[in-house]
Amino acid sequence: MTQLLHLDASARPGRAGEHPHGSHTRALTHRFVSRWARARPGDALTYRDVGLRPPAPVSGDWVPAAFAPPAQRTPAQHAVLAESDALVDELLRADLLVLGVPMYNFGPPSGFKAWLDQIVRIGRTFDYQPERADSPYVPLLADRPRRAVLLSSRGGLGYEDGGEMAAMNHLDPAVRTVLGFLGITEVHGIAIEGEELGGEVLARSVAQAMGAVDRLVDRWLAANHPRADAVLCEAA
Ligand SMILES: Cc1cc2nc3c(=O)[nH]c(=O)nc-3n(C[C@H](O)[C@H](O)[C@H](O)COP(=O)(O)O)c2cc1C
């Protein structure tokens, strides 16, 4: 059984195509997760919405609590870390992360950044071992194969690798850097572009992204679970 963690980060509550002013990243994550679930209805799914219910930002009390050895934490420090612990537990259970993250001002929305800050936890998702002089940081999520898909949307054009706006894309590198630091190095990115231009440009990009999502789901299902291939062929 695969454990999926489906996370949405758009401030817009509805899905594009179903709601006026709906979110394209919510539409992409929905497409991914529903196609996966049709092929493998027995897989487990956890849903987290950091767009509508953002985690708390890291605070002055959070920092010493997170870096205190667990046995020495006060009850108040345990309480300060409760949300972080719940988010970390959810992450540790996951084999596959389906992340819907729009570009806001060249980076991730603040709710998603708050989520990243809450899941990077010494002793839980990474460790620091100074005796390992060459690589003191130990990624604790490298304990088993895990992968992520970053489903994004941007108002402008050209933020893809090699594109004329690529140097201003601080979203994809931030997500890959943090997940890689924790041990999730297989991160596949698919993005819609031209949301602010609309019309044909946007329609073409949406169609391409939806097709890319379908192909990625089928590829990962086939790679992980050879029998899922047969199910998908039957449905076609
Ligand atoms: C606060 C805010 C900041 C944005 N900043 C950018 C940006 O820096 N670059 C860009 O191309 N589009 C930007 N956009 C456009 C969004 O990336 C685009 O609307 C995207 O589709 C939002 O994702 P969603 O459809 O899932 O809500 C911004 C939108 C908002 C609301």
Question: What topology does this entry show?
Answer:
Blueprint: E1 3-8, H1 24-39, E2 44-49, H2 62-67, H3 75-80, H4 82-93, E3 96-100, H5 110-119, E4 126-128, E5 137-139, E6 147-153, H6 172-182, E7 186-192, H7 199-224, H8 226-235
Parallel strand pairs: 1-2, 1-3, 3-6, 6-7
Antiparallel strand pairs: 4-5
Helix pairs in contact: 1-7, 7-8
The structure holds flavin mononucleotide.
Keywords: Flavoprotein, FMN, NAD, Oxidoreductase
InterPro entries: Flavodoxin_fold, Flavoprotein-like_sf, FMN-dep_NADH:Q_OxRdtase_AzoR1, NADH:quinone_OxRdtase_FMN_depd
Cofactor: FMN
Task: Provide an overview of this structure.
By secondary structure, the chain is α/β, with parallel strands linked by helices. The chain has a single domain, classed as Rossmann fold, CATH 3.40.50. It has helices at residues 24-39, 62-67, 75-80, 82-93, 110-119, 172-182, 199-224, 226-235; strands at 3-8, 44-49, 96-100, 126-128, 137-139, 147-153, 186-192. It has a five-stranded parallel β-sheet, sandwiched between helices. Helix 1 (24-39) links the parallel strand 1 (3-8) and strand 2. The protein is globular, with a radius of gyration of 19 Å. The two termini are 23 Å apart. Residues 10, 12, 23-26, 102-106, 153-156, 195-196 line the site of flavin mononucleotide. FMN binds at residues 10, 103-106, 153-156. It comes from Stenotrophomonas bentonitica. Homodimer.
